[in-house]
Write a structure and sequence with these properties.
This protein is mostly helical. The protein is about 70% helix and about 0% strand. The chain is built from 18 helices and two strands. A two-stranded parallel ribbon has the order 1-2. About 55% of the residues are buried.
Length: about 475
Amino acid sequence: MATSPATAPQASPAHLKRALGAWDLTLLCVVAIANLNVVPVIAANGPTTVWLWAVALALFFLPQGIGVIELSHRVPGEGGLYLWAKEMFGDFHGFLCGWCYWTTNMFYIPTLLFYMAGILAYSGGEKLAENRVFFFLITIGLLWIVTFANIRGLGVGKWVNNAGGIGTLIAAGLLIALAAASIFRNGINLPAASFAIEKIDWPIISVFGVICFGLVGLELGPVMGDEIRDPARDVPKGIFRGGVISGLVYVGCTLALLLAVPQSEVKVVQGVLQAVDKMTAVLKVNWILAPLAVMMAASIAGCTSAWLSGSARIIFVSGIDRYLPRALGRVHPKYATPHVALIAISLLSSILVTMSFIGASVHEAYLTLLDLAVVLQMMSYLYLYASLARVAFGPTAGAGFYGKARIRFASVAGLAATTLGMIVAFVPSRQIDSIWRFELKMVATCVIFLALGAGLFYYYSRRRPAETAVPALNTL
């Protein structure tokens, strides 16, 4: 393992509190991974996407779990992926990995809030569903409410995450139960032939990146490694439980949506409520729609909180390491939270929400933000699997949590699946109105953000030797 000689000790003059246990991590995994908002985007490409789910679960999700457990066992601490890439490849690669990870969530967090706005708009009819002003105001308002809740502390924020995890399980359970009741009453309206793969369809293959993106999140607990009560015991338990539950939720909800709504009619923003609306009307249990909307809103609020707090920890540690402005490494004197980092990522997300609406409809803005998040997240995951490969094919392979064969499979499969997921994210789906505008936004935004990250690293690394080291990071 290569650590850059310039690596300075991580530091903070304040304390982070150990507030997360095994079940907190389980629910954190569920609320971060099992995001019902990506299910309609995937289901809109038809029943053959079930096979893409199978490939992604076997070659991306399982390796992810193995990699996160192995690397968090070997390199524990606040920062997760940032810390692992930094330890294996040096400071620049650690920074770039962390940069891609938290900038991912600048794009992804708004898509979560778009979805919550979609839930609120669903009852308002088609006019409200495509009202850009309504979506803009709801997205920005909810973003800052969640931000200030997280500034109050992880002890408070984790209950938002936990409520979101429980809301996800209840909402998914209701959707799957309604689908089962519909099958019992009306039979299956999806012929077996619809699952057959007859030719390579690039618009369908393009959704593989979204599926992989939907399965990320097992690393979120270790990102808060210095805030877990017993990392050696709690991280493997939380990841295993959360991973199994999330995989079942995704496959079950995708099939339920396809059973309820014809592929051509699936709405990418309001698809889940659309499916529930149809099924409850047939079963004459329309009263379920309102409580389900509440559960989904809780789920999205929890998911937003989880990704916002995780992203803030990455730039918080970068601020401590002096590769971003020192202020980002500050801890709130009363609440012991990285309040400057939280405010920074929310401010940047607000700017991106504003930019995404320029010349685009609501659903195109949503899909473009989602695909940008996919590309940047896959870049950070390339570092995760490359770090695992460094261990798997190095002299200490087999001396960690797992044996050689398992971590070698995980590193190779993960690298292959992640590379494919990143490439196909540039293939526009059928729901994109303007291909040239989509490609221009994708390429230009990725180039700008990567160049900006590299520029910030070299600027602050030149100033860093003159900085005075501060005391090592403490936890309670």
